[in-house]
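Sample entry (1098 residues):
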Amino acid sequence: MGTEIELDVEGQTEPPICGFKSPTASKTTTRSPTLTTLNTGTIIGEECEGEADDDATVNRTSGDTTTTTTGPGPGRLPSFTPEVAHTLSVPDVCALLNTDPENGIDNDGAARRLQHHGPNKVEGAKGLSLWTILLRQVSNSLTLVLVITMVLSFAINDHIEGGVIAAVILLNIIVGFLQDYRAEQTIQALYALSAPTCKVIRSGTTSTIKAETLVPGDIVRLGVGDVVPADLRLATSINLSTDEALLTGESLPVSKHAESVMTRDRHVPLGDRSNMVYSASTITRGRATGIVVSTGMGTEVGKIAGLLRDSNSGRNKTRVDKEAMGTFGSLVARARNGMRVLLGLDGTPLQVTLSKFALLLFALAILLAIIVFSVSKFNVTDEVLIYGICVAVAVIPESLIAVLTIATALGTRAMARGNVVIRKLAALEAVGGVTNICSDKTGTLTQGKMVTRKVWLVDGTEVQVQGTMHPFDPTSGSVNIGEKVFSLADHGMKHPEEAIGEKGENLKGFLESIALCNNAAVTKAEETSTYTAIGEPTEIALQTFAMRFGMGKPSVLAADDGQSQQQLLAEYPFDSSCKRMTVVYTSTESGAGVAYAYTKGALEALLPLLDASDEQKLEIVAKAEALAAQGLRVLCVAKRSVDGVLFQVGDDASATSEKEKASASNIPERSTIEKHLTFLGLAGIYDPPRLESAAAVQKCQAAGITVHMVTGDHVKTATAIACEVGILNPGMLQNGTEVMVASAFDSLTDVEIDALESLPLVLARCSPTTKVRMVEAMHRRKAFCVMTGDGVNDSPALKKSDVGIAMGLSGSDVAKEAADMVLTDDNFASIVTAIEEGRRLFDNIQKFLLHLLVSNIAQVILLLIGLSFKDNAGISVFPLSPLEILWANLVTSSFLALGLGLEDAQPDVMQRPPHDLQVGIFTRELIVDKFVYGTAMGGLCLAAFTSVAYGMSGADGLGEDCNEHWASECGVAFRARATTFATLTFLLLVTAWEAKHFTRSLFNMHPEKYSGPLSVLKTVWQNKFLFGAVSAGFVICFPVIYIPVINHVVFKHNAITWEWGVVMACVVVYVAIVESWKALKRRTSKANVVTGDGGEGV
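Predicted structure, serialized as tokens:
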């Protein structure tokens, strides 16, 4: 059995995670003399099923329990709570739960208990309801502003405008709803926390049942590979270990012992309760039976899920404390929180910014309408009212919310292809602004499986495994022995079996020992040619290493005639008290009476048993410490010859398997076998980093993002992996705060943490509380952080972080429920891909915001100054009709903006620091650019209108009543309006291409890709959707202007001829203005590129 050496590197310095305490209970009880440790809790045994007499009262309101026992009474038992199960012996637990450890409960009793306790299901992973997903789509100020605009349009009988806006709102809701619904369905498909079935003993019979039908008092049988279906008090256990990483964060299996009773410490941490196994943990070794003490939401997993269900989902909400605030105060607080959600003021930075921007635009629209009314001295006729609403509508970028939703949804599809499932559309843009990543180690930065990394043989030979892509695959990677490289996958290298011939018996003996002293099985599926493994992770790593040399256990035992060369005589299993494992085999080739004992275990357990000199032992210890300093778990391997006569094999015909024959033998004490051992070598085992992790970390650092490793593993192991992937470099280890153990971090106050120059890059032995404090410390430093996690214990931190990312393969349901994003491949590199996509989306949002707002500013300038254009009746003439405004905003601009939303990432997207979260999306450059371009566009549209309206005006002037109806005297006004519409359309088309980059010229936008005078053609063709949108906008402009009836009746303009010259002149002038402005910015600004090892960190 694999064990770890007890050097300073492996010592646990952080108290493990404690279980949740039950609610405070008030009790008066007559205690059983044998059960003096109980004083609080919930009755779980048969007395809960209505069989208790009137002397016992159970109050289950709000989860609290009050039990009063007035006398001993026949059959009366004290109350029981799962939190104290580890302090009781097996008979006491059985008595309290009214069950039999051999026969279990009967089916009738199980049915009654199931009716009382409910199904064994964790309700935390319920997903989002359809109503919640739908409400999310309308919870923003921009949508509400559009709804108000739609209502006003219908109120003044402008049904076309109202219908178009209604269609935009509906489109946004449908697209957003479908995306969130699909993401939620994907998440639900990934949920696999609970064991679907389990083996239970009822009425003395073992049967397989659905795990959700388990009840307290059931007796469950467990074997290797089983997922624990509920919280169990072990009744029996044989060589048992469990993987509790999902609950405690401990990366290594934990040994369990049913006979242990912890009577003196009720509040011992979960990880130290060696007589308990918890729901969602996995059996990695041995077998056991256990008594169910809690199910469903009463399990440790369920308690964390309950906390998440009860917590406020919004990160910025004010917590409502009814007792402290009173009834009226709590109602006000709830109303305020509800209003924040409805207005979109509770969410990611972009959500909040756009919602505030929408409210600002709404106020500006009202102000502009008042200005229009004031010009008419508040004599608000139908004409004035329509013009006022027309100006107000021009301020609102109607298509912004739809374009944003569609662009984000398309980005989400792209992320799904990159193994990232986005649960919330807003999370994609949010992840682009992260300044810090808090990543788990096991399975995210590393492969999540143990590999034998280095071996040191007794003759000083060092063997190293490199480049393995699959820890279970012995053909993956290569083996280095000195300067020679061997590989089972060929690649022109020597076959590893040749190394055995070169290195002789030392290597062969070592491989034989780790293959035979091993219960793991590594097999290859013939259909898929993939390797799978069953057993304890350390043993799998050793077995795979032996298989690299063609000396796996099946190969060592096999013979030419199909009969085993060696027979198992005895097995001394791993025990935490002695920290070693020994097997004894006899060889048929060596003659009768010859046997060998193969031993592996912790160095401090084997060192006194070695037949070696003091100098040799000092050399072994020095080498072991060197391996441990590299973050490796060190195992010592040894063997000796023994007298086979000591193992007189019985003739029990019923003992068919090797282990059964060994157990039927007269096996001597292990102390007589485990002595005078011959040292063979040391094995250094670790969880290797993913090959792509180092490059991904380097990419983050180049992007100004600080990567932190927050793990439950040992500090030296975490430090070694952090150095290997690039989170740390050797120079950083001089600073005491770069690497911290959670106990040291938790001992600091918030003030002391804030006084640190930077937060630790490696935080080891973390508890859930430590991770939450880390996130809170980052928030106090105004950082925007991502937290990754897979276990139930990670859920509070995932909920607290700005963007929570759960693991899809190894993650628990509760973690996925708390997360905003889920990695389907559990790979850190996918987080970097998500950040890159988020930055691309952020850049593209700025681009189409610029495009949309330039159009709005131009229209406002045009319409406000257009108040001075009077017809013969003194009524202001619309430079643009209301439908022309909607056409420009919803048809022309929408597809252009969507095309900008699909732009590829800029080449330097991951070479610049994160954008300033305090500034948000409306940077100074964006604001200045939109006013420069908008003023230029508005001025040129005015020039186009006045050139036609006053340059060719005849006796009729601008006519009369030309805002609503066509007449021959309206010819000039209608032609001027058509010219203005064509100018606005063409300038919007040009702006779409100019907005592809804020500083680079359209004629030299991608010098790293294209050069020469024709590079502009390649630039505009690069984004084919945008090219199509520009082409369609150009073509469709002509039918709108020239088709009869449509031009006069619908758009209120007329066909034009020579006016196209005015339009083209305006386009040329506009391009010259934009290019001049970009050239000025290039001269006065410097590129902001991060060239160091990352940001300053927080």
